[in-house]
Amino acid sequence: MKTIKVVAAVIKSTNKDNTPIIFATQRGYGDLKGGWEFPGGKVELGETPQEALKREIMEELDTEISVHDLIDTIEYDYPTFHLSMNCFWCEIIKGDLTLKEHEAAKWLTKSELNSVKWLPADITLIDKIAKDL
Fold first, then answer.
1. What is the domain extent for residue 8?
2. Residue 67's CATH number
3. Helices (H) and strands (E) in the chain, counts
4. Structural domains counted in the chain
5. Over the stretch 62-116, which tens digit does the pLDDT of each residue have?
């Protein structure tokens, strides 16, 4: 089975009540269209995971981010490929998270994390994120 190496940004901020919030996006293309995920994408040859994540968020959301600690590396078998996904805490440096490839996006509080239909690999991260919010 083919392995695809990707990175995902768990972009953290706070709302007007100073409550921590996480940015989630709804996939706009491919077999997994409509599912919710953390934004990111494939790591290209010669890139570090952090470089790939900064590039992908700029390409997909027209936003510059800072990449912080690794939350986890998710290993997940989809029917046609194995996904290896490095997931990092991130913050916005500059930009407005303009959707270029996604159908929709939401900022979610800890209590709202399970209000969207996460893709199978991404949902495995929710408990770890909730513990740190």
1. 3-132
2. 3.90.79.10
3. 3, 7
4. 1
5. 999 999 999 999 999 999 999 999 999 999 999 999 999 999 999 999 999 999 9
Our measurement of the distance from residue 65's CA atom to the centroid of its chain's CA atoms, rounded to an integer in Å, reads 12
**Residue 70, strand partner residues:** 88
What is the CB neighbour count within 10 angstroms for residue 85? 23
The phi and psi torsions of 45 (rounded to 5 degrees) equal -55, 130
Give me 45's structure tokens: 């040859």
Concatenating the DSSP letter of every residue in 34-61 gives T-EE-SEEEPPTT--HHHHHHHHHHHHH
The SS3 call for residue 79 is coil
Closest by CA position to 66, among listed 95, 86, 108, 41: 95
Q: Output the pTM of the full model.
A: 0.95
DSSP H helical ranges for the chain: 49-61, 120-123, 126-132
